[in-house]
Every structure is written in C-alpha cells, then in structure tokens.
Amino acid sequence: MTAFTVEGLIADIAARRVSSAEAVDACLARIERVDARLRAFITVDADGARHAAKERDAALAEGRAPGALHGVPLAWKDLCFLRGLPTSCGTRTPDYFVGDADCTAAARLIAAGAVTLGKLNMSELALGPFGDNAHHGHVQNPWRAGHCAGGSSSGSGAAVAAGLAVGALGTDTGGSIRLPAACCGIVGLKPTYGRVSRAGAMALSWSNDHVGPMTRTVRDAALLLHLMAGHDPGDATTSPRPAPDCLTGIERGVAGLRIGLPENYYFDGVDPEVAAAVRTAAERLGREGARVVELRVPDPQAMADVTGLVSRAESASIHARVVRERPHELQPAVRARLEVGFRVSAHDYLQALRLRARWAREFVQLVFGEVDVLLAPTIPEPAPSLAEVTGVPVAQVLAHMTRFSRLTRPFNGLGCPVLAVPCGLARHGLPLGLQIVGRPFDEPTVLRTGRAWERLVGGFPSPPEA
Amino acid sequence: MEARPDPALAADLAYLAGAIERWAADLALAEEPARFVAALESAAPPDAS
Questions:
Q1: What is the pTM of this model?
Q2: Contacts of A364 in chain B (CB under 8 A)
C-alpha cells in the first residue's frame, strides 16, 4: 500500500481503486510504525492530511474535475513556508522562518491536488551534506541503520525511499537534493537555476539555491517539475519560460544521444565501486545507441571553490542574526561554516560572481557543444556511518563535508539541470548514485536519459524494509 | 561581528581570495554577475520551453 508512485496513485485514485484517504492513512500508518527510528519528519500533520484527503475524495465523488495530483500525499522539506505549520529549517526554533507567502513550489503542487503529510527533517539551516541533526534527530538511512541519509534534504530522501511519502520537495545549494537522493536510492532533480521559484523557501544562498522534486521514479520527477516550474513574480530570478512538458518524449530512449564522461576531476579519489558503477552505466547506455565520448571539462574545482565562496558570503548575510544573538543554539559545524562567511570581502564576493558568469558561459559552450548530457558520480563514497560524521572533531567533519559534496557543488555554480538517479548497490548494500547533467533548460533530455537508465535496470529498488 | 572562524576554514578562505585575484585578472570590464542568467537563457536548446 505504501509503495505508491505519484503516477500510479493518480491513476488509482482517478479509477476509484484507492481513495486519497486510504493513501494518506497508509502513509500515516507507516510514519507511525517506522519514523521514531528513521526521524524523517519534523512535523506530521495527520489531522490536516486526513481532512484534505476527505475533501479530495468528496470532490471526486461529486464529479468535480480532479487536479493533476488529486489526492496524492506529499511532504515538504522543513524550510518550505506554509501557513499553519511551523518552519524550523532544522533549527531548534519552531518558527525560524516565516515567509511573506506560502512556498510557491509547494503551493503549486497543493493547488494541483496534492495533500500535505507534514514537514521533513533536514540538516540545520540546510548546511550539511550528511543529514545529521542534533535538534530533531539524525535522519537514518533506510537502507542501513546507523548510516547517514545524505543532506541537507535528508528527511525528503529517507521519507520517499521508505515509502512514508509518495514524493517530496528538496532544495539544493551544493548538492542537497542529489546527495540524499543518492544515499537513499531515489530520484532527485536539481532543475536549471531560474526554472523553479525559490519564493517561500528559506534562502541559504540566493545565487545557488534550487528547489526540486524527490521521487521514486524518473517519470514522477518529470511530472512534479512540470507542475511546480514556471515564472513567479515572487522570485525575480525565475525564467519567463513556461513549465516544460518533460513526459511527452521521456520514453524515446537514448539512441543518437551524445553522452559525455569527464576525463578529469569527477573520478579522482572516488570509491572504486562508485566509479565502476558510473562507467558501467555509460557503457550500457552506449549499447542502447548513445554515443559515449570522454572529454575534459573546464576546471570543476575552481567552479566549486567560487560557488562555495558565494554561498558562504550569502549564508552569513542571511543568517547573521542567529549567529550574532544565539550562536549557542547552532551545531558547531553549522556555526563554523556561517562564521567564516563574515570574513569574505565584498571584492572577493563580486569577483566570484563575475567569474561564475564567465565560467558558466564557457562550460556550456565547450561541453554542450560536444555532448548532449554529461554523466558523473553523485557521491564519492556510499553513505558514511553517522558515527563518522558526528562523533569526530569539527575540523574533521568540515573536511569530510567538502569531500562529500565536491561532485555536486560545481553544478550549482553552473546552474545546469542535474538529475540524480540510483546506480546500483555497493557491496555492503548501500546505494550508489549517478548524475545526469544537461544544458540549461534542457530538463527533457536529462529526464529522458534518466528514464532510459531506469528502464535498463528494470526500475530502481526499494530498501529491504520498505 | 566578533566571529572567530574555524582556523582551517579561515585558511581556505585566505587561499581562495588569492586564487580569485589571479582568476579575475583578465576579466572583461563588461563581465557582470547578471550575465550568469543571460548565459543560461542563451544556452537553452532552441526548442526549449
């Protein structure tokens, strides 16, 4: 009952095989059963979800036209502001973030008929790639207890993988959708910068934040993107382009597509199992008719460095008040990352933004002049144990954080769309991850490639207990 | 602000400031932050919505 996909559940509800109330009850029952251990949710809105589901079912019974997501239970990272529910942003302050209006991306999905199950756990202030949280409990990896779920959208990754929600929203400033998607074995999409409104979602870095879907299938990610994307007057950085229809051509396969594998950076120092899994994926897609080419890409380390500097400066500005007034409330590694941002000079910040503009232009011309999509690992190692990322000195944690997000961060600076999909399992049973990177606003090709991979492997597996 | 940054992070930042100075040495006068969004829009496939 809880292994729903968004598309499957839409069809079941429309055909009256399942009611929205039954779907919501199934999710709530599973939350009740496993979430004390998993710690995926910060707030479960059981009454609100049941009430909304009844309304959706009544509307269907009365013959009113259903929305595109009619009755589908979803959950939101706890930095998406929604009136009536607290938005802690992973801090110990329940109402840390109060927006002017509801989070646009979530509100658009709700307007399409989605039902809110609650708000999901996350790294404190979205600052951390592991998903540990001293205030709300460390999110556990559904594949293996005691291992991290990836962050910062850790609750989103764990909840979707374990079947507590049919889909979720995450945000991604340096990898925070893709890292938990990879660690938890689900699909996560960081859209093109400007594709999805950031309005109503707590900012960590205006220049690098992206909002996107986290789902069990590639088709579900395509559907949610279509429903949440498009210009929003509440976010001046949103593109005027209409929301893309990524489902129409998604089954076309990869025949004739040019797929690039980076010769530099992305396989350096990566766990051999991770590297082998990504290379095997490229070979298998090649046998489906894609032309796989190896190419050098413009220095990703420099882009990661510049992106990191911009994020540090902006996050220190945004969250200065909590650092100044209540630093003791912040976890040590979070405080350390914010404090260093105060030392970034205006000169360096602006030069970094100018460099980013030039490098994004050069990257797109050089790379997407040669290939249609680029493949790369998402995580350099399978999800580490929570003991490795919590019980050690802060300096060690910070260094591990930098290593863990080094494959995802460059694409935040570049603004390109990136789909994270599962890519097999490591020897000890934890998921491995693959990034599929496309040219700006070419989510359809990225999703089409991801769907071809999903079909090739016969669908992505669920964790044993789910 | 009386923040005392982590020494390793502060060292990284100092290194990065030097690197940015070198990388930015030949930036064109016309290069401005807003050209990032322009770069994305102009790089979209012709048929992209």
A1: 0.97
A2: 39, 43
